[in-house]
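Regression test case RT-17, inverse folding.

Input:
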């Protein structure tokens, strides 16, 4: 089984993505971002579906061309079944079904959150793969989870957010500060120029391994409103220090829970995934933990952290090897039980 070629399609939110894998190696990884949403301050589902319809054929075509293989060489088609926006998921799944049917090859469904975790198993020079069991911290615009990963398809959520996802916390904080959507990367950019100890935001008290970020957002809102009363230019004058302080607090919240998870499970291999793992503060804290706590940590290649199809492809490859195929009656799911 050394010549497996998987075409993977990801369309769960606002990125249309396709990738071709040869076994566990990525031959091509194409993403079409939808810039249309920025002016609305968030993803507009109707517009996302429409953009997927426009982008999907060119994106798949580009992925096949870059991989330099023909459709006839494909072993299977993998697609994101969920979780995500229904209208967006339907575009990818319908296309995947039709193509698998036409080529008479197997169809493989993939859980988007599994893919963020298993992206670490893509064969990439300079990147080591974790061994089982390990803990995965998946942090994105829609999710914040600590997952105990025992094997490719044996994983349990041991902690998750009870309200906002950490990406939302970044994006909503950014919005309060008047930064455009998605604000996460901008908060990060300013934070790198500021002093994280300038302003103190209280961390939420959530029992166990769960998270809460809605209180932080409210604290930031009140802080900004109060400061603006004294000085209307307060935000502009202190943007770097404010962002550094917010980012510092969010990183502390994540690291506190990871420390507790390591203590409770006795597992000290930590892999991060999801769009927010691009954050410089989180990357540094995770790397520093190797020296500080003796953990072994895994940070994926940047292009495999935000939404992409290569991560769908690596799960597709694993499922192909264990012959976990779908019939053409498979349905998209906005929510999926882990
Ligand atoms: O995984 P992803 O691309 O899409 C989802 O599945 O949600 O994650 C997108 C999220 C957004 O909230 C974005 O603001 C955040 O990841 N993000 C960041 C950074 N880069 C992306 N947040 C903080 N710092 C960053 N550097
Ligand atoms: Zn994602």
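Golden output:
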């Amino acid at each position: 089984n050394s010549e497996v070629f998987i075409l993977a399609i990801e369309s769960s939110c606002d990125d249309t993505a396709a990738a071709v894998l040869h076994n566990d190696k990525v031959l091509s990884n194409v993403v079409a971002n939808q810039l249309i949403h920025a002016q609305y301050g968030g993803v507009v589902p109707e517009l996302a579906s429409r953009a997927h319809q426009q982008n999907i054929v060119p994106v798949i075509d580009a992925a096949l061309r870059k991989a330099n293989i023909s459709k006839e060489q494909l072993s299977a088609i993998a697609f994101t079944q969920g979780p995500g926006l229904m209208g967006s998921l339907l575009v990818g799944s319908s296309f995947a079904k039709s193509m698998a049917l036409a080529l008479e090859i197997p169809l493989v469904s993939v859980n988007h959150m599994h893919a963020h975790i298993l992206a670490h198993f893509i064969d990439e020079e300079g990147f080591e793969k974790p061994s089982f069991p390990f803990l995965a911290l998946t942090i994105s615009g829609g999710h914040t989870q600590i997952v105990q990963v025992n094997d490719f398809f044996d994983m349990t959520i041991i902690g998750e957010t009870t309200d906002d996802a950490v990406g939302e916390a970044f994006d909503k904080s950014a919005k309060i500060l008047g930064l455009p959507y998605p604000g996460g990367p901008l908060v990060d950019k300013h934070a790198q120029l500021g002093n994280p100890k300038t302003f103190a935001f209280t961390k939420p008290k959530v029992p166990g391994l769960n998270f809460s970020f809605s209180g932080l957002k409210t604290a930031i809102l009140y802080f900004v409103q109060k400061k603006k009363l004294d000085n209307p230019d307060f935000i502009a004058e202190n943007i770097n220090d404010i962002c550094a302080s917010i980012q510092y607090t969010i990183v502390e919240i994540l690291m506190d829970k990871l420390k507790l998870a390591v203590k409770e499970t006795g597992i000290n291999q930590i892999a991060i995934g999801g769009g927010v793992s691009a954050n410089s503060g989180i990357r540094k804290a995770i790397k520093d933990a190797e020296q500080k706590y003796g953990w072994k940590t895994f940070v994926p290649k940047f292009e495999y952290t935000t939404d992409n199809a290569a991560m769908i492809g690596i799960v597709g490859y694993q499922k192909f090897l264990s012959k976990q195929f779908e019939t053409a009656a498979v349905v998209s799911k906005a929510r999926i039980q882990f």
